[in-house]
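# step 3/5: fold
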Amino acid sequence: MSLLQAILLALWAGFCSFDDQGPQMFRRPLLIGPIAGLILGDLQSALIMSATLELMWMGLGNMAGYVTPDMIIGTIVGVVVTVQTGEGTSDASIAAGVAAATTVAVLVQQLMVIFNNLVKQLFAPWADRLALSGNFDSIMKINIVASLAQFAIRAVPTFLVVYFSTSIVDSALNAIPTNVLNGLSVASGILPAVGLSILMTMMMKGIFWPFLISGFVLATYMGQSVLSVTLFSLFIAIIYDMIMEIKAKQDEMPKVSTVAGVVEEEEYDL
């Protein structure tokens, strides 16, 4: 791991950190991992690792006061570990990457909880005092300071982990027994199913089950590829959206009262 690569990974993690106050889409492993792979020069391993982590964490999202395991640093560390093993496409390297990613993600989760509480305790009273004094121009300085802190809270740990822990990671991987790595390999294959089931628990209502069954039939019994199923699903989704839009417009139209099947029309004075 060169110094330049570590700095670029830290900058990428810091940039993704701004997603905490945005749509929370940059935090997805499928977006974070490939960029990390390009920086490390091994896009294929990064894509495999990112897809595995995406399936694991597909159902995770910050809601109310709950902070999820940090997918940003977790994904970057997982990709780094997978690439550094030298066998990025093997089961052992994927297992090692999953183990490192989940461990770091949970640790950074606790760090983010502390950081969020500190921000509320420090920045909110500061902003209140400035607002009461009428110094509204200085309130913008709070946004700048908060943005820098938001950037550093992920950039600094990412740099420390990926640059200074190369030897530690190698030593840890060599010290892990083969049986443990085999178990992690099996777990890495099960966890995506768990993540997908969590997502389905939130999404699948009674009306959506036919769509799930249709996709299963297309992929399993008709042998269609993922791309063909996706395009067919897009076609069905567009039609479904159009039908629901027409139905919503019909519900908004004023109802015409009828008596014995005869439409009553209002009388107009000409």
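# step 4/5: annotate
The first strand starts at residue 258 and ends at 259.
# step 5/5: archive (pending)
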